[in-house]
Design brief:
Length: 361
């Protein structure tokens, strides 16, 4: 059983000149976007890029034990940064333009970073949803609002980086970061789109049918690569194009969203012919659930859900888990205040997301 860390052990001594860019490199760059480069990589690219090897040294000087990224971001990020920055393959890559923006008033959680490869190509990586409730609310808004604030920021970021650096462009991200990568690829200017080789979505949520039908999206469809684990939940939310590839994961259900469980063989992922029966069931249930709700229903549901969560006083998922009794008590009190149909819808969603009911619909 091998994952992206094992890939670094095996291929880390091969430069990009010796072994060309591959799909596993995409995942590594996408996951490196979760690392905190504050005080290490300037947000203004004109202040100069920093070698990833130096980023790793500086990061672990500041945080010898690494950082706790919360309850949802894989803790392997510390190990990944340590191994990647020390490797010949990734250590000489330059890092620039680190942005990390959380705006509660605007409802935005956005982070991105650009990697400059030895062949002068760019890999622009977008961070997925972090531990903040602001970030999770924005994820839910994808089902009824386009563009959300972070999607607008993603397009602006790609336009900015493309003006400063020449060369081919790859975009990528994990979770919401994958959605941002695809959205930015589709809605960037025509001159930028000509330079984009591939936009990778690593188990990122899809889009509404309206977005998939737009010419901006369809014109880039052949350059979009979507990876989902065999029982994907997050990656099968909303609609995606039909060309997704299914990766073998060693974890169950929601835990498959952690790419540390995705199996790697050489420079490629270990793939499966299609979603597992569990994955097909998950996809069918979520699509049926969303199909029965129009955009206004989805907006009301999202407002209600986060009203319940925010009643606890929490700002992050970590806050919710640190005092479980207090959080649950506050949520129960708030749910009791809802109308009967809202309570029913809330419970139905929780069951869809967290319970593996084998009964087929």
């Amino acid at each position: 059983m091998s994952n992206f860390l094992d890939y670094l052990d095996w291929r880390g001594d091969l430069t990009f000149q010796a072994a060309p860019f591959c799909e596993v490199d995409n995942l590594i760059f996408s996951m490196l976007a979760f690392a905190d480069y504050s005080g290490i990589v300037p947000d203004d690219p004109l202040d100069g890029p920093v070698r990833l090897s130096r980023c790793g040294e500086a990061f672990f000087e500041m945080y010898p034990e690494g950082l706790d990224y919360g309850v949802i971001i894989p803790q392997k990020i510390n190990d990944l940064l340590h191994k990647a920055s020390a490797s010949e393959r990734f250590g000489e890559v330059y890092v620039t333009g680190y942005r990390n923006e959380v705006d509660e008033e605007a409802g935005k959680q956005f982070a991105a970073v650009t990697f400059l490869l030895p062949d002068n190509s760019l890999f622009i990586a977008f961070r997925g949803t972090d531990d903040t409730l602001v970030g999770w609310r924005e994820d839910f808004q994808l089902s009824f609002t386009t563009p959300v604030p972070s999607q607008k920021s993603a397009v602006r970021y790609v336009e900015e980086m493309s003006r400063l650096y020449r060369g081919d462009i790859r975009l990528g991200g994990h979770s919401k970061g994958g959605n941002l990568a695809v959205f930015a690829a589709a809605f960037s200017s025509p001159d930028v789109k000509k330079r984009i080789i591939t936009a990778y979505s690593n188990d990122g949520p899809g889009f509404t049918e309206e977005i998939l039908a737009r010419e901006e999206y369809t014109s880039m469809e052949k350059r979009i690569v979507t990876f989902v684990p065999q029982s994907s939940i997050v990656g099968m939310l909303l609609a995606i194009n039909g060309s997704y590839r299914v990766i073998k994961s060693t974890s169950p259900m929601l835990l498959q969203h952690d790419p540390g469980s995705w199996q790697v063989i050489g420079p490629r992922f270990e793939t499966m012919p299609g979603l597992s029966e569990e994955g097909k069931r998950n996809s069918r249930r979520f699509r049926e659930w969303l199909k029965n709700m129009d955009h206004e229903d989805r907006r009301v549901f999202t407002d209600t859900l986060f009203h319940v969560l925010e009643a606890t006083g929490a700002q992050t998922l970590r806050d919710l888990t640190e005092d479980t009794f207090k959080s649950v008590s506050a949520m129960v009190r708030t749910v009791r205040e809802l109308k009967p149909e809202q309570r029913s819808e809330m419970m139905r969603f929780i069951c869809l997301l967290f319970l593996n009911n084998p009964e087929k619909k």
